[in-house]
Each structure stands twice: as C-alpha cells, then as structure tokens.
C-alpha cells in the first residue's frame, strides 16, 4: 500500500510542477483519484514538506514548496 501511495504522491508532485496552484477537487478529477488515495497522497507530500495547502473561502488549494 505504501508503494501505491508513493506513486500517486509522485504523480501529484509532477502535476503540480506544471501547475502553479490547483484546487484539490480539480486535482482529484484530473488525476482520476478516489478520495482516500487523494488524501493519503496529499498527506504524504505534506508530511515531507513538499507542498503547501491553503484555503480561500471553502476551497483548498495546493502548491509546491519552493
């Protein structure tokens, strides 16, 4: 399971490398992730300080840490 989460985290990281800021819902649909995998992979990246999560109104956005 950890390998699968790591692979999905890598896909998210590469996606974010070509998108400056993306909302979580768009990310989910663009990468065709289910909620559980999305949350686990985003958590993985957040734990490694690879991403920044922000909120505007009721929408969550993710950006890469530079």
In brief:
With 66 residues, this protein is of the alpha+beta class.
Question: What would you say this structure looks like, in words?
Answer:
With 66 residues, the chain is α+β, with helices and mostly antiparallel strands. The chain has a single domain (2-64), classed as Arc Repressor Mutant, subunit A, CATH 1.10.10. Helices cover 56% and strands 21% of the residues. The chain is built from three helices and three strands. The protein has helices at residues 2-17, 24-31, 35-47, and strands spanning 22-23, 51-56, 59-64. The chain has a three-stranded antiparallel β-sheet with strand order 1-3-2. Strand 2 (51-56) and strand 3 form a beta hairpin. The longest helix is centred in the first third of the chain and has 16 residues, at 2-17. It is globular and about 35 Å long. 11% of the residues are buried.
Question: Topology of this structure?
Answer:
Blueprint: H1 2-17, E1 22-23, H2 24-31, H3 35-47, E2 51-56, E3 59-64
Antiparallel strand pairs: 1-3, 2-3
Helix pairs in contact: 1-3
């Amino acid at each position: 399971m950890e390998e699968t989460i790591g692979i999905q985290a890598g896909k998210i990281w590469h996606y974010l490398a070509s998108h400056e800021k993306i909302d979580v819902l768009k990310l989910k649909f663009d990468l065709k992730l289910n909620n559980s995998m999305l949350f686990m992979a985003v958590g993985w990246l957040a734990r490694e300080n690879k991403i920044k999560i922000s909120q505007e109104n009721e929408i969550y956005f993710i950006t890469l840490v530079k």
